């Protein structure tokens, strides 16, 4: 909020005055218009301290002031995160000398004050001198790094999550040669001091001591989680980040959602809160789960519902792996449709992945490698480096190649949030620009060049070919062809040595062959990150809000109805407390409504748009 006031240097109001003195300061400081309505402004103005003509701290969390509209004589800063009460008392009451406190606060101009937890040991850091001058906070990093938390649910979610953390460590090891804990690492990792007993404190600067993932691992079977804890990533997780059971959900959505959801609700909420407390600025939750199983679909969507209740302001990105038509879980259509209803209502963005598409992509890559045209040797800098500093090789497992593709999707998606670039894209911008309607938040993703654990030496395609591949059917992570469907919006996240001119040239080259809705013909969102993936010079992730996702939903509906018409396997669900047949009717109705919304958009494809009526002038 920008106050239209002229603050004079003779203002009598000083920081800790009472209400009467506060009112006097308002009366003598602000214009008559503001003074007339000062009681309406008091809740905000009590948080502002004015001393000697300078607006020192505006404690309105998350506010942003426009410097150009403020007189040059006014210095100001905004606390992005409100300090706790003990910290406020230490900062504004007698523990810190007045002259020192004013010197520190005066140094905080424009871009931000000391962090919320800066008041330690009875003094404010920043009062010390740097090269004989007071340290100015805005000369440090101007960008506030955001943190994200990954929630892995079920067998599939934890296997994909394991590959994500593996590749993330490789990527940061390739960039961070000095072993310094920097802002890029802080996006997904904490640096914990393990020298102290128990849960050591976080170390925000200096050498890497022990990296801990900002993650929560949930599975109602212990097998996959125990395997992770016995593997090379065991140092990245601890027991406080795990929630496991032994019996499993039996491929039943109702068991995962109704039984284990209620049973572990308090435990899940508590661990989520503790994980969030370690974040300075929590921006997003990433949920990784499958749609066909019982724990992934049931408990995964239950966690999604919890996140909306407990953290309503934090974005929720869901990576959902959809079953193929030849899936070995007979009840997967039931589980998927029941989970779809929750995704429609509680997710901000959903990235659908199909097992069949992943299998086709991996098969093509293996054919390329076995043909002898390209090398298949793993580069040394792509090995896993543990927190102990030793290098360990990983034996590839049957599904690792498929899971690596999903892991690379998440790495490219968050690259702008972790690394510098000439045109960064924040995660909230994806939802803001690509989701025009609340329910139509399913984004079709494509990666190029496609690489997995065994093919990091595959040479990069030519730049223009990389953009063309991103819109081809063979590179989509679901069975779809976006070029023959309707685009609502599209985002291009480019990494590596790519210029903005190259990006614009390729967009102009591809636009004639792509069909966009009439009301959003320029619906492009672009990002350039200067750090390429390990083993490549550049890469591209395309996210499309496209009606081509509709056939996946229609096929899922058909498979559901084949079982539901015969009431096959329905009794396994109805015997669970709180589960009724109406849940199935509501779920299929929600999916049908979603398909109908895509049908209405497809009906406008190729239609003529009427030009707006113009004013006719009689001559």
Summarize the structure.
It contains 21 helices and 19 strands. The protein has 2 domains: 19-139, no CATH class; 147-551, 3-Layer(aba) Sandwich (Rossmann fold).
Tag the structure with descriptive keywords:
alpha/beta; 619 residues; 6-stranded parallel beta sheet; 15% strand; 38% helix; 19 strands; single chain; globular; 5-stranded mixed beta sheet; 2 domains; disordered N terminus; Rossmann fold
Note down, in words, how this protein is organized:
With 619 residues, this protein is an alpha/beta fold. The chain has 2 domains: 19-139, no CATH class; 147-551, Tubulin/FtsZ, GTPase domain (Rossmann fold), CATH 3.40.50. Helix content is 38%, strand content 15%. The chain has 21 helices and 19 strands. The strands form 6 sheets. The protein has a 6-stranded parallel β-sheet with strand order 9-8-5-10-11-12, with helices on both faces. Strands 15, 16, 17, 18 and 19 form a 5-stranded mixed β-sheet that branches. Strands 1-2 form a two-stranded antiparallel ribbon. Helix 9 (253-263) packs across helix 11. The radius of gyration is 27 Å and the shape is globular.
């Amino acid at each position: 909020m920008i106050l239209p006031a002229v603050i004079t240097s003779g203002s009598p109001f000083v920081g800790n005055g009472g209400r009467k003195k506060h009112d006097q300061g308002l009366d003598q400081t602000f214009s008559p218009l503001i003074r007339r309505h000062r009681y309406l402004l008091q809740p905000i103005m009590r948080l502002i301290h004015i001393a000697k003509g300078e607006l020192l701290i505006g404690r309105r969390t998350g506010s942003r002031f426009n410097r150009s509209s403020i007189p040059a004589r006014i210095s100001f800063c905004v606390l992005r995160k409100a300090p706790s009460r003990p910290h406020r008392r230490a900062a504004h009451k007698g523990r810190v000398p007045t002259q020192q406190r004013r010197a520190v606060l005066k140094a905080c101009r424009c871009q931000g004050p000391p962090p919320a937890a800066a008041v330690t040991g009875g003094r404010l850091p920043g009062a010390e001198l740097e090269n004989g001058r007071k340290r100015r906070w805005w000369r440090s990093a101007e960008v506030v790094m955001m943190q994200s938390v990954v929630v892995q649910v079920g067998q599939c979610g934890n296997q994909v999550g394991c590959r994500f953390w593996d590749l993330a460590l490789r990527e940061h090891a390739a960039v961070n040669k000095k072993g310094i804990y920097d802002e890029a690492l802080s996006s997904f990792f904490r640096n914990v001091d393990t020298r102290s007993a128990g849960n050591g404190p976080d170390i925000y600067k200096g050498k890497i001591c022990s990296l801990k993932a900002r993650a929560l691992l949930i599975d109602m079977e212990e097998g996959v989680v125990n395997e992770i804890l016995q593997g090379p990533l065991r140092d990245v997780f601890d027991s406080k980040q795990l929630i496991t059971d032994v019996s499993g959900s039996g491929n039943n959505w109702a068991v995962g959602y109704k039984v284990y959801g209620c049973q572990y609700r308090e435990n899940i909420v508590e661990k989520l809160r503790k994980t969030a407390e370690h974040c300075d600025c929590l921006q997003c939750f990433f949920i990784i789960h499958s749609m066909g199983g019982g724990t992934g679909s049931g408990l995964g969507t239950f966690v999604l519902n919890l996140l909306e209740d407990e953290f309503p302001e934090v974005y929720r990105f869901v990576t959902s792996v959809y079953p193929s038509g030849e899936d070995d879980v007979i009840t997967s259509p039931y589980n998927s449709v029941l989970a779809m209803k929750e995704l429609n209502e509680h997710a901000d963005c959903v990235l659908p992945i199909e097992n069949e598409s992943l299998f086709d992509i991996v098969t093509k890559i293996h054919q390329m490698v076995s043909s002898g045209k390209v090398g298949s040797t793993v580069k040394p800098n792509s090995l896993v480096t543990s927190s102990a500093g030793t290098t360990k090789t990983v034996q590839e497992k049957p599904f690792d190649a498929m899971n690596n593709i999903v892991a690379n999707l998440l790495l490219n998606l968050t690259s702008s949030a972790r690394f510098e670039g000439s045109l960064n894209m924040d995660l909230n911008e994806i939802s803001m620009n690509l989701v025009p309607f609340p329910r139509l938040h399913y984004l079709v993703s494509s990666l190029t060049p496609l690489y997995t654990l065994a093919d990091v030496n595959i040479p990069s395609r030519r730049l223009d070919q990389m953009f063309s591949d991103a819109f081809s059917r063979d590179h989509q992570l679901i069975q779809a062809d976006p070029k023959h469907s309707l685009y609502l919006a599209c985002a291009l996240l480019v990494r590596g040595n790519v210029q903005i001119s190259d990006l614009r040239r390729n967009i102009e080259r591809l636009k004639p062959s792509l069909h966009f809705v009439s009301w959003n013909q320029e619906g492009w969102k672009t990002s350039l990150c200067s750090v390429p993936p390990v083993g490549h010079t550049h890469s591209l992730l395309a996210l499309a809000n496209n009606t081509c996702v509709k056939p996946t939903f229609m096929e899922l509906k058909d498979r559901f109805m084949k079982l539901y018409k015969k009431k096959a396997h329905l009794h396994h669900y109805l015997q669970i407390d709180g589960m009724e047949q109406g849940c199935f009717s509501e779920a299929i109705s929600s999916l049908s409504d979603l398909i109908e919304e895509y049908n209405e958009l497809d009906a406008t494809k190729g239609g003529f748009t009427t030009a707006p009526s113009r004013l006719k002038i009689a001559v």
